[in-house]
Amino acid sequence: MAAKDEFGRAGEERAAQHLEALGYEILERNWRCAQGEIDLIAARGDLLCVIEVKTRRSDRFGHPFEAVDERKRRRLWRLAFAWAEAHPDIARGRPLRLEAIGLTGAEPADARLEHLDDLR
Questions:
Q1: Quick one: which of 59, 102, 103, 115 is 20 to 30 A from 38 by CA?
Q2: pLDDT at 102 over 80
Q3: Which residues contact 101 (CB under 8 A, 6 or more apart)?
């Protein structure tokens, strides 16, 4: 695995730990379909949360949340509905919500973590 990919995976692990500490249940990691990939899918109460994780070594090329633009949000919604269709027993009757976690720092383990819990 390339160093960049390992860095991203470490960021996703830190994000999952953060979510679990808040009471989320991680249902799936790196779910893939023909349309793309969802980093994390979690349940929090009745909500199903689709979480995009962006890990950056610095803000040099912009804040991590800048990468979750309108186009990316539309794609995440399509993926969220595809996941729900593939998992009807889990998703039926539960609202979906998009979230994002941004990590900025040289090492994901101690990077600054920011969590947007309702992307619109």
A1: 59
A2: yes
A3: 15, 18, 19, 51, 52, 53, 54, 113, 114, 115, 116
Q: Where do the DSSP E strands lie in the chain?
A: 25-33, 36-44, 47-56, 96-104, 112-116
Q: Please tell us whether the domain made up of 3-110 is placed in CATH 3.40.1350.10.
A: yes
Residue 113 to residue 101: CA distance in whole angstroms = 7
Q: Where do we find the tokens 């919500």?
A: 97
Distance CA 17, CA 12 (A): 9
Torsion of Cα atoms, 63 then 34 then 4 then 27, to 10°: 80
- Round to whole Å and give the CA distance between 81 and 36: 12
The token pair at 49 is: 């949360």
The pLDDT tens digits for 65-98 are 999 999 999 999 999 999 999 999 999 999 999 9
Under 8 Å CB-to-CB from 100, ≥6 apart: which residues? 51, 52, 53, 54, 64, 65, 68, 115, 116, 119
Query: How many contiguous H segments (helices) and E segments (strands) does the chain have?
Result: 3, 5
